[in-house]
C-alpha cells in the first residue's frame, strides 16, 4: 500500500507508543511462528536421527543420518511416482476449478437474476456433502460403465465436488467486497459488463484469485478418501495414500523414523510451492489495493 | 470469449450514445448469469448431486436373500424401506451411532471455536507484523499445507508414550490409545492444522480494509480496542463467515485425522464418517449409506441454522458494514470507493 504517503501529520501524543507496539508485534510474531513450525520441526529433526537414537529429545540430531530417507526413497517403494501423481491430480483440479469458479462467483456476486439465492444455497449444499456419501456411488459408476478406476480423472473429477464450492465461495466473498462503483465507472466509460469484469474487476481480484488457487490446491493435495477409493494400483496412487499405507495396515513393523522421513518428503514439494506462491500473494495484495 | 458474444449490445457503440441504459448493471442479467453459472452447476450435479441421490437410494435397499416362490436363488437388491434407519437408532448399533454422533458434535464445536479465535488472532498478528512478513506468512502456511494424513502421523509421533508431549508435560499419558486423552489429541492436532486456514482468510479480508479508515478513526480518538471492535471485525465479517462455515462443514465430516492418529473402532474418537466408512468397507452398503445420509441431514440442518443466523450477509449483502450504523457505514464505503 504505497499509493499514499501515510500519516503525514503524526500525532505528538502517539510518539512514545511505537516502541512498545513493535515489541508486542515481535512477540506475537515469534509466538505465531513457534506455534506453526515447532511440530513440523520435531518431525524434521526426528527424520534425521538414526533408528538407535530415535527417542532422543535433543533439539538437533546428534549424529545426522540419512538412514530414514534411504529407506523411503528406495526405488522399490515407488514414492517418486506417488509424488508425481499427487502433483498431477491436485494441479489439474485447481486449474479447471478456478476457470469455472471465477465466472460463477462473479455472476453470483454482481448480476441480478432469478433463482440467485437458490443457486447460492445449492452450492453451499454441495460443499457440505460428506465425502463418504459421494465415494461409494461414484466408485460404482467408474468401475462399471466408465472404466475409470486407476486413472487420473477418477480422482480429479470427484475432487471438484469440494474444490469448486470452496473456490466459488472464496472468490464470491472477494468480489462482494469490491465497490460496485468500479464497474459502474467502467461502464460509463463504455465497457460492457463483460469488459468491466475482465479489465477492471479481475485485475483487482488477483489477490483473491491467488489465495483461492492456493486454498484449492492444498485441499486437492490433502484429499484422501477419493484417492484411496478410486485407485488400487501402486503406480497410480497419490503420495497421501502411499504414506497412509506406509503407516497404516502394514505399518506395524515400519519404524517411526522412516514414517517421519516419508512425511517430510511429501511435504517438501508443498513447502517449495508455498514459498513461491507466497511472493505472488504479497505482490498481488499490494498491487490490488483499491484506489 | 463467450461472455462478450452474449452481449445484446454492440461493444463498439460510443459511450455517450446509450442514454436509455444509464444503469447497465440493472439490466436483466439472466442470459449472462445462466452462461456463467451453468458450468459450475453442471459439474456439481454430476460429481455431488448424482452420488448423494444414489446414496439415498442405496440406503433404502438391501441384499436380496433366500429363494423366490419357484425355488430359484434370488440375486441383486430389494427394497427394504426404512429398515436400515430403524436399525441405526436402536440396540447395539444405536449405541455406537449415538456415540459417534456425540463425538462428531463435540469435536466440531471445540475445534471450530478454538480455530476461529486463534485464526483471528493470527491474522491480526500477521497484519501487524513488522519484520519478515513474507517469512511469517509462509510459516503460517506450513501446518495448513501439510496433508492431514501426514499431520496425523506427526502428532502420533509427538503423542507417543515416550514422545515429545509426555516429555514436555512430565507425564506418562497414553494419548493415542483411547479415552478422553485421545479426544484431546485429535482436538490439538486439528486446531494446529486448521487455525491457519481461518487466519489466512481473515488476513486477506484485513488487507482489503484501507489504512485511511483506521487513520480517520484515530483522528476521531478511537483506541486500538475500539478500532478492532468497530472497524476491523465488522469489515472482515464476510470473509470470517465464509471461513467459519467451511470449517464447520469440514469438521462435521472429520475422517482422516482420527482414523490415522488414533485408529478405527475407537469409542472416544469414532466420528459419523468413520462409522459409515467402516460399514461400507465391510460391504454393508445399505447401513453405510444410511449412516452417510444421517450425517448428510445433520450437516444440512447445522448449515441451514448457520446460514439463517448470518444469512443476510451471505446471500444478499453486497458489501461490508451492513450491520453498522448508517453513518459509520457511509464512512467505510466512502473510504473504499
TrEMBL record, chain A:
InterPro entries: BP-dep_ABC_trans_perm, MetI-like, MetI-like_sf. SUPFAM superfamilies: MetI-like. Gene3D superfamilies: MetI-like. One of its GO terms (biological process) is transmembrane transport. It comes from the Bacteria. GO terms for cellular component: plasma membrane. The keyword Transmembrane applies. The chain crosses the membrane at residues 21-44, 82-106, 118-139, 151-171, 200-221, 260-277. Residues 83-277 form the ABC transmembrane type-1 domain. The keyword Cytoplasm does not apply. Keywords: Cell membrane, Membrane, Sugar transport, Transmembrane, Transmembrane helix, Transport. CDD domains: TM_PBP2. It is a multi-pass membrane protein. It is found in: Cell membrane. Pfam families: BPD_transp_1 (PF00528). PANTHER family: INNER MEMBRANE ABC TRANSPORTER PERMEASE PROTEIN YCJP, MALTOSE TRANSPORT SYSTEM PERMEASE-RELATED. Belongs to the binding-protein-dependent transport system permease family. This is Multiple sugar transport system permease protein. It comes from Streptomyces wuyuanensis.
UniProtKB/TrEMBL annotation, chain B:
Residues 1-25 are annotated as: Disordered. The chain crosses the membrane at residues 32-53, 106-126, 138-158, 228-249, 289-310. The keyword 4Fe-4S does not apply. GO terms for biological process: transmembrane transport. Residues 101-306 form the ABC transmembrane type-1 domain. It is a multi-pass membrane protein. Keywords: Membrane, Sugar transport, Transmembrane, Transmembrane helix, Transport. Residues 11-22 have a biased composition (Pro residues). It comes from the Bacteria. Signal peptide: none annotated. InterPro entries: MetI-like, MetI-like_sf, Sugar_ABC_transporter. Its main location: membrane. GO terms for cellular component: plasma membrane. It is found in: Cell membrane; Membrane. It holds the Pfam family BPD_transp_1. The keyword Endoplasmic reticulum does not apply. Belongs to the binding-protein-dependent transport system permease family. This is Multiple sugar transport system permease protein. It comes from Streptomyces wuyuanensis. The lineage of its organism: Bacteria, Bacillati, Actinomycetota, Actinomycetes, Kitasatosporales.
Amino acid at each position: 500500500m504505497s499509493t499514499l504517503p501515510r500519516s503525514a501529520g503524526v500525532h505528538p501524543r502517539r510518539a512514545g507508543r511505537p516502541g512498545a507496539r513493535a515489541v508486542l508485534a515481535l512477540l506475537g510474531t515469534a509466538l505465531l511462528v513457534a506455534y506453526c513450525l515447532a511440530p513440523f520441526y520435531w518431525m524434521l529433526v526426528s527424520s534425521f536421527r538414526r533408528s538407535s537414537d530415535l527417542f532422543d529429545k535433543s533439539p538437533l540430531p546428534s549424529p545426522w543420518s540419512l538412514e530414514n530417507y534411504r529407506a523411503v526413497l528406495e526405488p522399490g517403494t515407488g514414492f517418486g511416482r506417488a509424488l508425481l501423481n499427487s502433483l498431477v491430480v491436485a494441479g489439474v483440479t485447481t486449474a479447471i476449478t478456478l476457470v469455472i469458479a471465477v465466472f460463477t462467483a462473479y455472476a453470483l456476486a454482481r448480476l441480478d437474476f432469478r433463482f440467485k439465492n437458490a443457486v447460492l444455497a445449492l452450492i453451499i449444499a454441495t460443499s457440505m456433502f460428506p465425502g463418504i456419501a459421494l465415494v461409494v456411488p461414484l466408485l460404482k459408476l467408474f468401475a462399471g460403465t466408465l472404466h475409470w478406476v486407476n486413472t487420473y480423472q477418477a480422482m480429479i473429477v470427484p475432487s471438484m465436488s469440494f474444490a469448486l464450492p470452496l473456490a466459488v465461495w472464496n472468490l464470491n466473498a472477494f468480489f462482494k467486497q469490491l465497490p460496485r462503483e468500479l464497474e459502474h465507472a467502467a461502464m460509463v466509460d463504455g465497457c460492457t459488463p463483460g469488459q468491466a469484469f475482465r479489465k477492471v474487476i479481475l485485475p483487482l481480484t488477483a489477490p483473491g484469485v491467488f489465495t483461492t488457487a492456493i486454498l484449492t490446491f492444498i485441499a486437492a493435495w490433502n484429499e484422501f478418501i477419493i484417492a484411496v477409493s478410486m485407485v488400487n494400483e501402486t503406480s497410480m496412487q497419490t503420495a497421501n495414500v502411499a504414506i497412509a499405507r506406509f503407516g497404516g495396515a502394514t505399518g506395524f513393523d515400519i519404524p517411526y523414523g522412516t514414517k517421519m522421513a516419508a512425511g517430510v518428503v511429501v511435504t517438501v514439494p508443498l513447502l517449495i510451492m508455498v514459498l513461491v506462491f507466497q511472493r505472488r500473494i504479497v505482490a498481488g495484495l499490494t498491487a490490488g489495493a483499491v484506489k | 470469449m463467450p461472455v462478450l458474444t452474449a452481449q445484446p449490445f454492440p461493444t463498439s457503440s460510443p459511450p455517450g450514445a446509450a442514454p436509455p441504459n444509464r444503469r447497465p448493471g440493472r439490466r436483466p442479467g439472466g442470459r449472462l448469469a445462466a452462461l456463467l453459472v451453468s458450468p459450475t452447476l453442471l459439474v456439481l450435479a454430476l460429481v455431488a448431486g448424482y452420488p448423494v441421490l444414489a446414496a439415498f437410494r442405496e440406503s433404502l435397499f438391501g441384499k436380496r436373500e433366500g429363494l423366490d416362490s419357484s425355488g430359484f436363488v434370488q440375486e441383486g437388491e430389494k427394497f427394504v424401506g426404512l429398515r436400515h434407519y430403524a436399525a441405526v437408532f436402536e440396540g447395539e448399533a444405536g449405541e455406537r451411532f449415538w456415540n459417534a454422533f456425540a463425538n462428531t458434535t463435540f469435536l466440531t464445536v471445540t475445534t471450530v471455536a478454538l480455530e476461529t479465535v486463534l485464526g483471528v488472532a493470527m491474522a491480526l498478528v500477521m497484519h501487524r507484523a513488522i519484520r519478515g512478513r513474507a517469512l511469517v506468512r509462509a510459516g503460517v502456511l506450513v501446518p495448513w499445507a501439510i496433508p492431514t494424513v501426514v499431520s496425523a502421523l506427526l502428532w502420533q509421533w509427538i503423542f507417543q508414550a515416550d514422545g515429545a508431549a509426555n516429555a514436555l508435560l512430565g507425564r506418562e499419558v497414553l494419548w493415542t490409545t483411547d479415552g478422553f486423552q485421545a479426544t484431546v489429541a485429535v482436538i490439538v492436532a486439528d486446531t494446529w492444522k486448521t487455525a491457519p486456514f481461518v487466519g489466512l482468510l481473515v488476513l486477506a479480508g484485513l488487507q482489503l480494509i484501507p489504512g485511511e479508515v483506521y487513520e480517520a478513526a484515530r483522528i476521531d480518538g478511537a483506541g486500538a480496542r475500539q478500532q478492532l471492535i468497530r472497524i476491523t471485525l465488522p469489515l472482515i465479517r464476510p470473509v470470517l463467515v465464509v471461513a467459519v462455515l467451511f470449517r464447520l462443514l469440514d469438521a462435521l465430516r472429520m475422517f482422516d485425522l482420527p482414523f490415522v492418529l488414533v485408529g478405527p473402532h475407537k469409542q472416544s474418537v469414532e466420528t459419523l464418517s468413520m462409522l459409515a466408512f467402516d460399514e461400507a468397507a465391510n460391504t454393508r452398503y445399505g447401513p453405510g449409506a444410511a449412516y452417510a445420509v444421517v450425517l448428510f441431514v445433520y450437516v444440512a440442518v447445522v448449515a441451514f441454522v448457520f446460514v439463517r443466523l448470518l444469512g443476510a450477509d451471505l446471500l444478499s449483502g453486497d458489501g461490508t458494514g451492513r450491520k453498522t450504523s448508517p453513518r459509520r457505514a457511509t464512512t467505510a464505503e466512502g473510504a473504499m470507493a
